[in-house]
Design goal:
Keywords: Chromophore, FAD, Flavoprotein, Lyase. By secondary structure, this protein is α/β, with parallel strands linked by helices. The chain folds into 3 domains: 121 residues, Rossmann fold; 112 residues, Serine Threonine Protein Phosphatase 5, Tetratricopeptide repeat, CATH 1.25.40; 167 residues, DNA Cyclobutane Dipyrimidine Photolyase, subunit A, domain 3, CATH 1.10.579. Strands 1, 2, 3, 4, 5 and 6 form a 6-stranded parallel sheet that branches. 46% of the residues lie in helices and 6% in strands. Helix 4 packs across helix 5, helix 11 packs across helix 16 and helix 13 crosses helix 14.
Length: 452
């Protein structure tokens, strides 16, 4: 009897346990992707562009045997299962709050069908699925370092041996009309190609050219030193097990990269155990923090979004984000600190803007990265740590290469010899600082100090 393979955040054929489960016994498999209007409405243009390009590639890889349909999954998936007489639906596990609610609704709808149509989840987008690593008393970890030790001790499976030839695919054209949709045209350009082949090629290039120095260079936005794998991991065009297989040599670069994958798993686990932390402070003490609102706050927020704050490293980061849908991780921390601690705006404002703009926008990583900076999350930076944007620029973009690339007003070295300190050489078309960092740092410390 046929089965149904429902692709979600796993747009690949390699290392795909759910694919292997769906194809057991040489059964025929209908592969599908559901364009859920709720997710489409909450995704920025570049994230949709990546999705549509990755779906195009996946459909080609399967020789056209990928059905694209549109609607609420709790309606569409049971309809498709009934249409092909599927005995089971197979997915990769989704541990986000939205994903769990959606899957519960689909499971309940399948139970209403005549006969038994099972709903089976295999694997996850992580090296270790959320919920599997807990303390000795079965409570979740709240601090990264002990989680990291337990995570490494737990380990993970080797990549699953799957590919496009692992199943006998049902041709979607054999289904009756009313299900199929065209893959929409991408609504934006991307600065990196999307899809499984692109993900593997990007990883191989990084391992060959940059992994050895990753531990020293990863904080430098002026260098091409990061892997740029975040969007590929977000959409599952590559599994982190494929990455981890190249990180076992114990080198400093490999260990530093593996630690970043552990942070990804940690934040997914935190969101799994505390689903309200998607939009509320994980540390509820910070609910009492004083933040600004009103027209003046909105004006400052608009300047931050546009990259017109008058602080070069902040403006470079925000302009890179607007132009490409990506921003270097060190710069993400700098611009986040500026929004929360210099402008005194709610971290949720910045998190929402990032999710709208980022190709790699991931609810667990994004929200808990913002909370780390704001001081209200797990492993939060001490509240008294306020990034000085000028000193951050000098330390991590010492020659100003990154700033000059993204802030054209500061590109002329003869007119602007020092992009970090513009006293006496600030171009007329580049804005004055919208706030005084020293004063706002003191104000931030005052506000945070009132919580203790």
């Amino acid at each position: 009897m046929p089965t149904l393979l429902w692709f979600r955040r796993d747009l690949r054929c390699a290392d795909h346990p759910a694919l292997l489960d769906a194809a057991q016994g040489d059964t025929e498999v209908l592969a599908c992707y559901v364009l859920d209007p709720r997710l489409l409405a909450s995704s920025g243009a570049r994230r949709l562009a990546y999705l549509y390009r990755a779906l195009d590639e996946l459909r080609d890889t399967l020789g056209g045997a990928l059905l694209i349909t549109r609607g609420r999954p709790e309606q569409r998936i049971p309809q498709l299962a009934a249409a092909v007489g599927a005995t089971s639906v197979h997915v990769s596990g989704d541990f986000s709050p939205f994903g769990r609610r959606r899957d519960d609704a689909v499971r309940a709808a399948l139970n209403e069908l005549p006969g038994e149509v099972g709903f089976h989840a295999a694997g996850s987008p992580y090296l270790v699925a959320p919920g599997r690593i807990t303390k000795d008393d079965d409570t979740p970890y709240r601090v990264f370092t002990p989680f990291f030790r337990a995570w490494r001790d737990h380990g993970w499976r080797a990549p699953a041996r799957s590919g496009p030839d692992s199943a006998r695919w049902i041709d979607p054209a054999d289904l009756s009309a009313g299900f199929a949709e065209k893959i929409p045209d991408p609504p934006a350009e991307l600065d990196l190609p999307a899809g499984e082949a692109a993900a593997l090629a990007q990883w191989r290039t990084f391992v060959r050219e940059s992994l050895a120095d990753y531990h020293t260079d990863r904080n430098r936005p002026d260098l091409d030193a990061t892997s740029r794998m975040s969007a590929h991991l977000k959409f599952g065009t590559i599994h982190p097990r494929t990455l981890a297989a190249d990180l076992a040599d114990g080198s400093e670069g490999a260990d530093a990269y593996l630690r970043e994958l552990a942070f990804r798993d940690f934040y997914a686990a935190v969101l799994h155990h505390w689903p309200d932390s998607a939009w509320w402070n994980w540390n509820r003490t910070f609910d009492a923090i004083e933040t600004d609102e009103g027209p003046d706050a909105e004006r400052l927020f608009d300047a931050w979004k546009a990259g017109t704050t008058g602080f070069p490293i902040v403006d470079a980061g925000m302009r890179q984000l607007a132009a490409t849908g990506f921003v270097h991780n060190r710069v993400r921390m700098i611009v986040a600190s500026f929004l929360v601690k210099d402008l005194h705006l709610p971290w949720q404002w910045g998190a929402r803007w990032f999710l709208d703009q980022l190709v790699d926008g991931d609810i667990a990583n994004n929200q808990h990265g913002w909370q780390w900076t704001a001081g209200c999350g797990t492993d939060a930076a001490p509240y008294f740590r306020v990034f000085n944007p000028t000193k951050q620029g000098e330390k991590f973009d010492p020659d100003g290469t990154y700033i000059r690339r993204w802030v054209p007003e500061l590109a002329d070295k003869s007119a602007v010899p020092n992009v970090h300190r513009l006293d006496g050489c600030r171009p007329a078309d580049y804005p004055e600082p919208i706030v005084d960092h020293g004063q706002e740092r003191a104000e931030a410390l005052r506000r945070y100090g009132r919580l203790s």
